[in-house]
Design goal:
Largest sheet: 10 strands, mixed
Low-confidence stretches: none
Number of strands: 10
Radius of gyration: 19 Å
Shape: globular
CATH architecture of the largest domain: 2-Layer Sandwich
Number of domains: 2
Order of helices and strands: EHEEHEEEHEEEHHE
CATH topology of the largest domain: Alpha-Beta Plaits
Structural class: alpha+beta
Strand content: 25-35%
Distance between the termini: 29 Å
CATH superfamily of the largest domain: Pseudouridine synthase I, catalytic domain, C-terminal subdomain
Mean pLDDT: 95
Helix content: 10-25%
Length: 263
């Protein structure tokens, strides 16, 4: 049977999910999308994500690759998915791709954002599960100095969960953007790299915030980057403040421009 390969750009509120990866009992994003595709295609379709976000992590632009029967085109697949998926998951775009496209292995760059609430309203029921409700001031100058130390191609072994990467992995990541900005009610970190290790962004945020609040001395990120273990890293920042923002792929993998249809 003729088939087509699509890139799905997926948005979700991670609060009610046990992460991205399919699990036997718990509700996951991958599981929900696969259930929707089973309903639409009457056959199991494997959904491959660009990254396995943890429980509580959100997505503005997660990417999944799927292979479906050729009768589906991008607009019809997007509309049908949004008609049957729950409200906390949305297909923001469907894009036809070359057959060799793979959401994870074809990715050239991933970008995350992390939100920190520094004002008293961060504990509001409309915000507390969408950002880290820190509710205290943080030195933006110190945060920016620490973020600059994370730029470049370096080993981030000290900022990864031990044992989640193969022993032979060098834990090197090329961080191309690491930038703190002010936003209404708090702070925003934007970070982009060719790859990320498990909990890497959350460990980085936790460490930088401890520097920015005076709990760690300046230069902590540089010191940890020289370490061989993650023994001295700060606790990871809460998952609720982390968003997978976008994933970038080489242009030659695209067969058609995206079709964006409102849910």
């Amino acid at each position: 049977m003729p088939r087509r390969t699509f890139q799905l750009v997926i948005q979700y509120d991670g609060g009610a999910f046990a992460g991205w990866q399919r699990q036997p009992v718990q509700r996951t994003v991958q599981g929900v999308i696969e259930q929707a595709l089973l309903r639409l295609t009457q056959t199991h379709v494997t959904v491959t994500g660009a990254g396995r976000t943890d429980a509580g992590v959100h997505a503005l632009g997660q990417v999944a690759s799927v292979i479906v029967p050729a009768r589906w085109n991008a607009p019809s697949l997007q509309r049908a998915l949004n008609a049957v998926m729950p409200r906390d998951v949305r297909c923001a775009a469907a894009i036809e791709m070359a057959p060799e496209f793979h959401a994870r292995f074809s990715a050239a760059e991933r970008q995350y954002r992390y939100l920190v609430g520094t004002d008293g309203d961060a504990t509001s029921p409309f915000r507390y599960d969408r950002e880290w409700p820190l509710c205290r001031m943080v030195s933006l100058d110190l945060l920016r100095a620490e973020a600059a130390q994370a730029l470049g191609d370096q080993s981030f072994r000290a900022f990864a969960v031990k044992g989640t990467a193969p022993a032979a992995d060098d834990h090197r990541c090329d961080v191309r953007v690491c930038r703190w900005e002010l936003r209404p009610g708090g702070l925003l970190l934007t970070i982009a790299a060719n790859r990320f290790l498990h909990h890497m962004v959350r460990f980085l945020v936790g460490t930088m915030i401890e520097v920015g609040t005076g709990r760690r001395p300046p230069g902590a990120v540089r010191t940890l980057l020289a370490a061989d273990v993650n023994r001295d890293v700060s606790p990871p920042a809460p998952a609720c403040g982390l968003y997978l923002e976008r994933v970038i792929y080489p242009a030659h993998l695209y067969l058609a421009p995206p079709s964006v249809v409102a849910a």
